[in-house]
Amino acid sequence: MKAATDTESELEPYHNKNNIDDQMISAMSGNGEIKVTAITIRNLVNDVMIQQTLTATPADALSRSMTCGLLLSNGMQKEQTFQLSLNCPNGPIRTVVAIANGEGGVRGYVGNPGLADMHISEAIGRGRGGTVQIVKMHPDWPNPYNGITSIEHGDVDRDVGIYLAESEQRACALAASSKFNGILCTAAGGYIVEQLPGCSDETSAQVEKNLAKLVAMNGDGNGNGNGGVS
After folding, report:
1. Model-level pTM?
2. Measured distance CA(196)–CA(205) in Å, rounded
3. Tens of pLDDT along 175-200?
C-alpha cells in the first residue's frame, strides 16, 4: 500500500523492525463459492497521521475508509479508481474521502483533521442526514459509476456494507477497524468475505456461523457484531 500520494513512504519514525509490513491477502474456498480478502494498514495509517497532522478520531475514520477502499478496489484494473466519500453535513468531522486504485494505492483526507477525541459514530453524525457515496471510474468509461446511500450507523464499514447490499446487491461481510494509543496507530485493517455466484445455502450458513464465532471472540472493532452475509 502507498501512503497518501507517495509511491513509497519516506517517513520512518514508526517503522519498527519488529513490526510486520502492511499487506493484503486473498483466498478462495476449495469449492469456489467464497472469496476472502484481509488487509493490514497500520504503517500506512501512521504515515498519514504524520503527513496530515491527524488526531486519533479523524485518523480512525480515515483508516476505516481507506481499508474499505483497498478491499473493494482489489481485483480492479490498474487504471480504475474507487472513491469512497462520507458526506457528514451534521457531523463534526464534516467529510471523509478515500480513493484507491487497482494497483493497491490509496490516498485520502478528512474535513476536520484536528477533531477532539469522540466515538467515531458521533464524529460522523449517525442518523443526521449523512451519505455514503461510491464513485468508480476508468479512463475508458464515458461516465463514472455513482451510488449513494444514507449513513445509518456511523462506523464506516457497516454503512459501506449497507451500500453494497442495497446498491450493488453484493452478498458479503465487510469489517474495518483501527486502534490508537495517543497519536500512534497500534492496529488497523479489515476483511471482506464475499459469496460468489452459485454459492450454496449450506456454504452460506457455514460462513455465517464461522463469522459469528469470529466476532464473538474478537469483536468487530465497533463494539458490536458485523459478521452476517447479507
Report:
1. 0.85
2. 14
3. 999 999 988 999 999 999 998 888 88
